[in-house]
């Protein structure tokens, strides 16, 4: 089942701002998006930071790996200039900073656990624990919580052990054979798949299984309508300018 928002800004602000930065979240909010997806990885000091690639160079100016630098060092790097001069100096934010911003602005979060190679268990555990600490009050009050998700089975298992009260979604590109058994074993509440690999028949099967169904990354209103008509519960988009923020 899916009790979460339907339309999420991918990586904070989609393609309208440098991904996975505080500027991206501000941009998403400016377009009315109060639901967001972002990626979390561990820095060298074990602090979770919000970034997509394990290597520097594409969005973060520099070389080497995220896991070579502390969160403070990554925060001082430039994760905005690649996108445009107006964003120069925008650092890699910590997970804590992003969650604090989202909570303050009442932005719902799909937190993608994105382990660098070899860090699956540590990343799953750390992100789940940190999320539980941030949401201790909401957990106690039975309020809506963020949804954790990951492509990494190991990270999902570690997150479950660390904070079983936090719901998880299983991210895949194509929904694989044996998905029902795997989803049950993982205890996930939703499947998150690439919309280009989804068929109407498979969408129906997922819904019949009682799971939530989430798609990435849907960039036209027409495709969004089609997927929703198939029973898809939610999706993230890079085109927050074309697709109206949903409920
Ligand atoms: O969580 C959905 C989507 O973000 C998964 O792919 O590579 O954009 O993190 P990616
Ligand atoms: Mg992601």
From TrEMBL:
* The protein's enzyme class: hydrolase
Domain GP-PDE residue range list: 5-247
Molecular function GO labels: glycerophosphodiester phosphodiesterase activity
CDD domains linked to this entry: GDPD_EcUgpQ_like
Query: EC number(s) in its UniProt entry?
Result: 3.1.4.46
This protein's UniProt keywords: Hydrolase
What Pfam families does this protein's entry cite? Answer: GDPD (PF03009)
Biological-process GO terms, alphabetical = lipid metabolic process
UniProt xrefs under PANTHER family: GLYCEROPHOSPHODIESTER PHOSPHODIESTERASE, CYTOPLASMIC, GLYCEROPHOSPHORYL DIESTER PHOSPHODIESTERASE
NCBIfam families in the cross-refs: PRK09454.1
What name appears for this protein in its UniProt entry?
Glycerophosphodiester phosphodiesterase
Tell me which species this is from. Answer: Janthinobacterium violaceinigrum
Its lineage opens with:
Bacteria, Pseudomonadati, Pseudomonadota, Betaproteobacteria, Burkholderiales
User: Source gene?
Assistant: ugpQ
């Amino acid at each position: 089942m899916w009790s979460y928002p339907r339309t999420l800004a991918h990586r904070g602000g989609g393609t309208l701002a440098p991904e996975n930065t505080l500027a991206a979240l501000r941009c998403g909010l400016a377009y009315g998006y109060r639901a967001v997806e972002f990626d979390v990885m561990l820095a060298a000091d074990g602090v979770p930071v919000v970034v997509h690639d394990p290597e520097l160079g594409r969005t973060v100016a520099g070389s080497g790996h995220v896991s070579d630098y502390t969160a403070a060092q990554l925060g001082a790097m430039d994760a905005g200039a690649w996108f445009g001069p107006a964003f120069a100096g925008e650092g890699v934010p910590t997970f804590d900073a992003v969650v604090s911003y989202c909570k303050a602005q009442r932005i719902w979060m799909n937190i993608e656990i994105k382990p660098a190679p070899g860090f699956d268990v540590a990343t799953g555990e750390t992100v789940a624990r940190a999320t539980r600490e941030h949401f201790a009050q909401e957990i106690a009050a039975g309020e809506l919580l963020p949804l954790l998700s990951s492509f990494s089975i190991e990270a999902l298992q570690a997150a479950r052990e660390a904070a079983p009260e936090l719901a998880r979604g299983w991210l895949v590109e194509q929904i694989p054979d044996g998905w029902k058994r795997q989803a049950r074993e993982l205890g996930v509440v939703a499947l998150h798949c690439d919309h280009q690999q989804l068929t109407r028949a498979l969408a129906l099967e997922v819904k019949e299984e009682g799971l939530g169904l989430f798609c990435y990354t849907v960039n036209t209103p027409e495709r969004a309508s089609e997927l929703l008509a198939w029973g898809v519960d939610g999706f993230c988009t890079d085109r927050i300018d074309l697709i109206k923020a949903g409920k």
